[in-house]
Design goal:
The chain is an alpha/beta fold and 226 residues long. The protein has a single domain (3-225), classed as Flavodoxin domain (Rossmann fold). It has helices at residues 25-40, 61-67, 76-81, 83-93, 111-120, 171-178, 199-225, and strands at 4-9, 45-50, 97-103, 127-129, 138-140, 145-152, 183-191. The strands form 2 sheets. The protein has a 5-stranded parallel beta sheet with strand order 2-1-3-6-7, sandwiched between helices. A two-stranded antiparallel ribbon has the order 4-5. Helix 1 packs parallel to helix 7.
């Protein structure tokens, strides 16, 4: 079984900053997971994108027009406007493990991460459309992928039955969109209480680091047995 990982970081902060309080929590948890993976399982291919600091462009009217123009009739300008989308889709397609780390901004995902999803979820590339399917005409074209979602938030209680369950639009949104990336299994790691900066935050962060390492051990056993 191949180990091909696509690692997407969405925080606008660097993993390490002169002021440690400004270092990205989600990126550091993701780094712990990736470093642990490298120690336990050979990685056949590793692709990294920091969309927080190097975001893909937003889709535009020209982008949409190019997408819905048959490929053999596209102008060179239309091929050019889709070139980044083509590259990002190829990276998802070639990977079997997706690691997405993201902070919660205003109870949802950063605009930069949404821009990445918008470039990838594309008709006849990652999904097709057929009205013969009735009320559910969209069907994913990719399959068999694992997604690890790593999140950080300033507040807490966003989990199922938590006191802020209905306020979280980060993980639910990623989970909904992940269907069109071919994801069939999702694992979640979260760190909370950042804005409180108390013992609860320290414990939550440490639990997230430990969960990252335990998850790697769990998944690596599947790869080493193959």
């Amino acid at each position: 079984m191949m180990s091909k990982i696509l690692h997407i970081d969405a925080s606008v902060r660097a993993a390490i900053n002169p002021n440690p309080k400004h270092s990205s929590i989600s990126k550091n948890i993701a780094n712990r997971l990736i470093n642990s993976w490298k120690k336990q399982v050979p990685i056949d291919e590793y692709i990294y994108r920091d969309v927080g600091m190097n975001p893909p462009p937003f889709i535009t009217q020209d982008w949409i027009e190019a997408v819905f123009t048959p490929e053999n009739k596209r102008t060179q300008a239309q091929h050019d406007v889709l070139s980044i989308s083509d590259q990002l889709i190829a990276e998802v397609s070639s990977s079997d493990i997706l690691v997405i780390s993201s902070p919660m901004y205003n109870y949802g995902m950063p605009a930069q991460l949404k821009a990445w999803f918008d470039q990838i979820i594309r008709i006849n590339k990652t999904f097709d459309f057929d009205l013969a399917r009735g009320d559910f005409p969209l069907q994913p074209l990719l399959s068999g992928k694992i997604l690890i979602i790593i999140t950080s938030s300033g507040e807490f209680g966003f989990e199922k039955d938590g006191i802020r369950q209905n306020m979280s639009h980060l993980v639910p949104h990623i989970c909904t969109l992940s269907k069109y990336l071919g994801v069939e299994k999702i694992y979640e790691i979260s760190s909370e209480y950042q804005e409180f900066g108390d013992e609860r935050h320290i414990k939550s962060l440490e639990n997230a680091f430990q969960k990252a390492e335990k998850l790697v051990a769990q998944l690596s056993s599947l790869y080493t047995k193959s």
